[in-house]
Amino acid sequence: MFTGRSFFVPRRATKDTQFNGYFIRKNTTLIGNFRDLLMDEAAGWHNPEDFDPDRFIRDGRLKIPVNFLPFAWGKRRCVGEMFTRANVFLVVAGLLQAFNFETVPGNPVTVETVENFTPTVNHYKTYVTLR
């Protein structure tokens, strides 16, 4: 999975609290690590860099793990989630309906990312032909 950004929007602790054995003082700024939530093997992702749709299928049914939160969670989750899901579906379905996509022989696709402020995927070549 490609994580478009590495960190969540900062939050502020509204009171002194304990979390996973850590004391967090009131007014502390908290920044969640978005990439680790979706890609860390310690968070339950086996081979997170591999494309594996089976990780979301159990007994022939779609099963989304509780720690799969690409749009964050809670009352401040991404307001564009439903719009994004619908748009991505329509765009990808339209492209797959109209075109064939093939890799260029001798030019393998890699999943390595280039780390910037926002990670990006390395460029690669592909053949795109009309169906």
TrEMBL record:
A Gene Ontology molecular function term of the record: monooxygenase activity
Cofactor names: heme
Gene3D superfamilies from the UniProt entry: Cytochrome P450 (1.10.630.10)
Entries under InterPro entries matching the protein: Cyt_P450 (IPR001128), Cyt_P450_E_grp-I (IPR002401), Cyt_P450_sf (IPR036396)
Keyword Iron included in the entry's annotation: yes
N-terminal signal peptide: none
Residue sites binding heme per the record: 78
Keyword check for Metal-binding: yes
UniProt keywords, alphabetically: Heme, Iron, Metal-binding, Monooxygenase, Oxidoreductase
SUPFAM superfamilies according to UniProt: Cytochrome P450 (SSF48264)
Homology family: Belongs to the cytochrome P450 family.
Protein name per UniProt: Cytochrome P450
